[in-house]
Write a structure and sequence with these properties.
By secondary structure, this protein is mostly beta strands. The chain has one helix and seven strands.
Length: about 110
């Protein structure tokens, strides 16, 4: 049981939590996603989690350890493709079989 095992420890995220998108259970040490992640904004995080030895009613002993947790955010298809130009009206003469009417180009902010 994680909670029983960690009962004399206090956990915290001390680095790498830009925007506070991750949270941590101070008792169990479980790190979780606290708010929406966006691959297009940040595709990776490097969190530092610190554990501190505490004694009930006596505060901290000063004994600590830390671990680096690297989190990769995977892209989700959540962006709308967009054309790079307005095609609008193009003029074509009759009998111009094969004439190019438009060559639209579209981009998509998703990496997939």
């Amino acid at each position: 049981d994680t909670e029983e095992h960690n009962r004399n420890n206090m956990f915290s995220i001390t680095q790498g939590n830009q925007g506070n998108v991750f949270g941590i259970n101070g008792t169990t040490g479980e790190v979780f996603v606290a708010s929406a992640l966006d691959f297009e904004d940040t595709f990776a995080y490097s969190l530092v989690v610190v554990v501190e030895d505490v004694t009930m009613g006596k505060g901290t002993s000063g004994f600590t350890d830390s671990i680096r947790i690297n989190v990769a955010v995977l892209d989700d298809n959540d962006e709308v493709p967009q054309f790079d130009m307005d095609v609008g009206l193009r003029v074509v003469y009759e009998n111009e079989k094969g004439a190019i009417v438009a060559s639209p180009f579209a981009t998509d902010a998703d990496s997939t």
